[in-house]
């Protein structure tokens, strides 16, 4: 099988919100962007010389509407099934995210007031229901879906055979890519401690680069240094009882695989 190539598909701005096209024996799309962006994604896929009808799978990394907002329409435009984790079935089936959003800092507190984040979008039923690590060889790429819970309970990432990690909102680029190469938390995490554990598990697999939902690609060594600082920060906040977590999403000592 040919090696998998990762191609960014900007959904909003140059890298404010990203989807990705994975190229192998057959193409796979990761994430479906904001509501109303399906045709833009389809057209960018075609601009890379790929017939959208050849897309074998659409992987949705988690149940926030800037990642699954156009999943139903993109499914209709390509005919490809949508893959999503069972723990985020609620948002997928209702078209609504779990409320409230839990901000990671000032930007999240500001963004939580944005009415566009609280809209109901077109729901969908995943044709491929993810419950654990999932090999994507049958869909034409050398890659695996990896459960990475924390940002939401059903967050997943895609790790290619070349070591590229398409990470959704496991980690972000500072200020949505305005500060290139600088790791940062996305505006929200349902469970920041669990998310950091998932991030460190992925870093232990020695990825070559992290491709994020918001911003430009990140180098693993820089993310490792950031993760060490974040671990110390979260430890202090936990000790002070200042971390908010969705109790329904957190199962101590358990991963979804």
UniProtKB/TrEMBL annotation:
* A Pfam family that the UniProt record links to this protein: Lactamase_B
Q: What InterPro entries is this protein classified in?
A: Metallo-B-lactamas (IPR001279), NDM-1-like (IPR050855), RibonucZ/Hydroxyglut_hydro (IPR036866)
The residues covered by the Metallo-beta-lactamase domain are 16-214
Q: Protein name, please?
A: MBL fold metallo-hydrolase
